[in-house]
UniProtKB/TrEMBL annotation:
GO terms for molecular function: glutaminase activity; imidazoleglycerol-phosphate synthase activity; lyase activity. Its main location: plastid. This is Imidazole glycerol phosphate synthase hisHF. One of its GO terms (cellular component) is chloroplast. IGPS catalyzes the conversion of PRFAR and glutamine to IGP, AICAR and glutamate. The glutaminase domain produces the ammonia necessary for the cyclase domain to produce IGP and AICAR from PRFAR. The ammonia is channeled to the active site of the cyclase domain. It holds the Pfam family GATase. Residues 390-391, 427-429, 499-500, 525-526, 548-549 are annotated as: PRFAR binding. It is an enzyme of class 3 (hydrolase).
Length: 589
């Protein structure tokens, strides 16, 4: 399965003189992509190296403000469209092989399964046209699957033949040595040669999310422009002439250049719901209770979703997660405000976006059936990079454990089959159940660090559904193992007992789950101070830590968390640090 799509902030097409210079970038926009056509008969324009990410080529003899986009219908390409249109350029979608051959500049972003993409390209006659276009050294940028398809074949559900333009086979990361697959997060690049598009991001972290990769070899060394290390060195980008392709590059160049390996992620979570006045607001629960303890008992309102997401992006959040906490009650495709929040946010926020809530099969009032895949697809089209599945994952795991059969019909299986397991996050909402004897239950137990109210030394973690309102007879350990087998690519691990308490993450639970699975685990619930973040990374194998209320109430800033982690020797993606104002600070401090 393949990575979520590239998310540049701008695409800039330059033209020859006498054309006007490209528009100046807005001061608030941290990055740009200059995608300018090379012409072998002319010299490229002399441009001062920008402080932003850039792809350059000359425009040749035509002033054609059009970017041709090869969108075969899978995944989130809204961000690419936003970037192109924000610069005033038109987009021509590929409808036929002729559109590829006639393109002045072609961008091919891809997400999903290798075989499915090749089937589409072959059936529509586009594979041959794409090969011809690239062999003629026309301006091309492949992104994610747009890189992998250039190779000879892929082992994903295969072998499956690729376009065969670059020697090599796309294989899955080897998880047998404890490597967590998918490879998710901000990692470091090793530049192999002048790649043009990567020259300005040396020493910065770039974002990857993928399960399959191609390996450098003597046969493809002339193509390789950069590698990344995750278990072994894999190909992160290629370049030959005017042909460029990247496995996954999402860059924020305001970062302090300290990248040496995969960084731990700090994620801002926004619980979103409609308040009693009908407005969509960010809220936060105290052990999942989001109403104020007042006479009015109103929904706690901590801000507007798009505004807060933008703030956390600027503060250095590595990802943004939206949880539509009333999505389990209503039909998500009817939740137009939430879809609009995603669309607006994807225009302003250039880190990965996850959205959860109500992703399941559904039959509307008229009797029409919608699959969970259709629901997820609408979220992806609206700007999401990943979807988070909660209650429906519990039901699917229960059935799988009972029958031992993968039916292919669960939401996890449907979505991961089309979009890749890296696009599927399972959100687990357990509560701690203390035990005097670990043999009292049939579920995995742990010896707890802090005994229970009656001196109990053991506990199991009982999963819940419907926002913590209903207990299920399945443990967090059993659920995590089952959803990994069904195709989940990441786990968001909450704990109802710790939620909103500010006393730290549930280390016993996080250690149990992160040691049990080979997919990344996001620690959630309980953070109250910066030391809680370093504790969870030092004592468990969590890949990321998530917080909500402490960020919303400005008790902690994302920058202060990352500065602390860096001081503790934990690699993070650093941005210039500016302490946030605190309502608790005193004038003499």
């Amino acid at each position: 399965m393949e990575a979520a799509n590239f998310r540049p902030s701008r695409f800039l097409a330059a033209t020859t003189a006498p054309s006007p210079p490209p528009p100046a970038p807005p001061p608030s926009d941290p990055r740009s992509l200059h995608f300018l056509r090379h012409d072998s008969t002319t010299n490229s324009p002399k441009l001062k190296p920008p402080s932003t990410f850039s792809v350059r080529a000359s425009a040749g003899v035509h002033n054609n403000p059009v970017v041709t986009l090869l969108d075969y219908g899978a995944g989130n390409v809204r961000s690419v469209r936003n970037a192109i249109r924000s610069l005033g350029f038109d987009i021509k979608d590929v409808q036929s092989p002729k559109d590829i051959l006639n393109a002045e500049r072609l961008i091919f972003p891809g997400v999903g399964a290798f075989a499915a993409a090749m089937d589409v390209l072959t059936q529509k006659g586009m594979a041959e046209a794409l090969c011809t276009y690239i062999k003629n050294d026309r301006p091309f940028l492949g992104i994610c699957l747009g890189l992998q398809l250039l190779f000879e074949s892929s082992e994903e559900n295969g072998p499956v033949n690729g376009l065969g333009l670059i020697p090599g086979v796309v294989g899955r990361f080897d998880s047998s040595n404890g490597l967590r697959v998918p490879h998710i997060g901000w990692n470091a690049l090793q530049l192999m040669k002048n790649s043009e598009i990567l020259n300005t991001i040396r020493n910065n972290h770039v974002y990857f999310v993928h399960s399959y990769r191609a390996m450098p070899s003597d046969d493809n060394k002339d193509w390789v422009s950069s590698t990344c290390n995750y278990g072994d060195n894999f190909i992160a980008s290629v370049r030959r002439g005017n042909v460029h392709a990247v496995q996954k590059l999402r860059v924020k160049v305001l970062e302090v250049g300290n990248a040496s390996k995969l960084a731990k992620r700090v994620i801002a979570c926004l619980d979103v719901r409609t308040n009693d006045e009908g407005d969509l607001v960010v809220t936060k629960g105290d052990q999942y209770d989001v109403r104020e303890n007042t006479k009015e008992n109103e929904v706690r309102n901590l801000g507007k979703p798009v505004d807060l997401a933008g703030k956390y992006y600027r503060d250095g959040a590595d990802e943004i997660s939206f949880l539509n906490i009333t999505g389990f009650r209503d039909f998500p495709l009817g939740d137009l405000p939430m879809l609009q929040v995603l669309r607006y946010t994807s225009e302003r926020v250039f880190v990965p976006l996850t959205v959860g809530g109500g992703i399941r099969d559904f039959t509307d009032g008229s009797g029409r059936y919608y699959s969970s895949l259709e629901v997820a697809s609408e979220y992806f089209r609206s700007g999401a990079d990943k979807v988070s599945i909660g209650s429906d994952a519990v039901y699917a795991a229960e059935e799988y454990i009972r029958s031992g059969v993968k039916t292919g019909k669960s939401s996890i299986e449907q979505i991961s089959r089309v979009y890749g397991n890296q696009a599927v996050v399972v959100s687990i909402d357990p509560r701690r159940v203390f035990l005097k004897n670990p043999d009292d239950v049939d579920f995995k137990t742990v010896r707890v660090s802090n005994p229970g109210p009656n001196g109990e030394e053991y506990a199991w973690y009982q999963c819940t559904v419907n926002g913590g309102r209903e207990d299920r007879q399945i443990g967090a350990y059993e659920l995590a193992k089952a959803v990994e087998e069904l195709g989940a690519g990441e786990i968001m691990l909450n704990c109802i007992d710790c939620d909103g308490q500010g006393k730290g993450f549930e280390i016993d639970l996080i250690r149990l789950i992160s040691d049990a699975v080979n997919i990344p685990v996001i620690a959630s619930s309980g953070a109250g101070k910066v030391e809680h973040f370093s504790e969870v990374f030092k004592k468990t194998n969590a890949s990321a830590a998530l917080a909500a209320g402490i960020f919303h109430r400005e008790e902690l800033g994302i920058g202060s968390v990352k500065k602390h982690l860096s001081n503790e020797g934990i690699e993070v993606r650093l941005t210039p640090y500016k302490p946030p104002p605190s309502r608790f600070s005193r004038p003499w401090n």
